[in-house]
Amino acid sequence: QQHLEPPTFRGSSAEDPETWLETYERNATFNKWSDDDKLRHVYFSLDDAARTWFENRETTLVTWDLFHENFMRTFTNVVRKERAEVLLETRVQLPNENIAIFTEEMTRLFRHADPDMSEEKKVRFLMRGVKEHLFTGLMRNPPKTVAEFVSEATTIEKALEMRARQYNCYH
């Protein structure tokens, strides 16, 4: 199996530390690295300010969990969180976007804006952004969870697609 090189993180304000860490973790999983391996390798994926930060703390960052926690505390900026919050307020289901893709995109925004967001708040955002004809159907039995939202909206979406196909067959 080929070894994957994780991306480099420099510590600039233009970089997204959460996305970098997620990518680093995916690379580590692919490479079958343990937490100790991740900690041993991380130095080589850091450069500039991030490498200096690590070198200054190397003796105290003795576990992957300690590295992860300190890294996030140091480099996480509020830009990604704020951008996700703004997008959540304005994001609507696009004309040719199915419910599955809309929900996946919204789920990513939930995670970025507030990883601990309540189901109730997530459902509110989904209901506010869903296409009007789906919203109307969903209001018959309003969903209480994201899973209920996806299940019911997908059912309505499929029924509407079947109707459109049948209707178009007669023309």
Task: Please describe the topology of this protein.
Elements: H1 17-30, H2 35-42, H3 48-57, H4 64-75, H5 78-90, H6 99-113, H7 119-129, H8 132-138, H9 146-169
Helix pairs in contact: 5-6, 8-9
List the defining traits of the structure above.
0% strand; elongated; mainly alpha; 171 residues
Would you kindly provide a written description of the structure presented here, covering whatever features stand out?
The chain is mostly helical and 171 residues long. It contains nine helices and no strands. The chain has helices at residues 17-30, 35-42, 48-57, 64-75, 78-90, 99-113, 119-129, 132-138, 146-169. Helix 5 (78-90) packs antiparallel against helix 6 (99-113). The longest helix is centred in the C-terminal third of the chain and has 24 residues, at 146-169. It is elongated. The model has no long low-confidence stretch (mean pLDDT 92).
Question: What can be said about the biggest beta sheet?
Answer: none
Q: Total helix count?
A: 9
Overall pLDDT score: 92
Pattern of helices and strands: HHHHHHHHH
Report the radius of gyration as a whole number of Å.
22 Å
As a percent range, the share of helical residues equals: 55-70%
Beta-strand residue fraction: under 5%
This entry's quaternary arrangement is single chain
Shape: elongated
How far apart, in Å, are the first and last alpha carbons? 55 Å
Which spans of ≥5 residues are poorly predicted at pLDDT below 50?
none
Structural class: mainly alpha
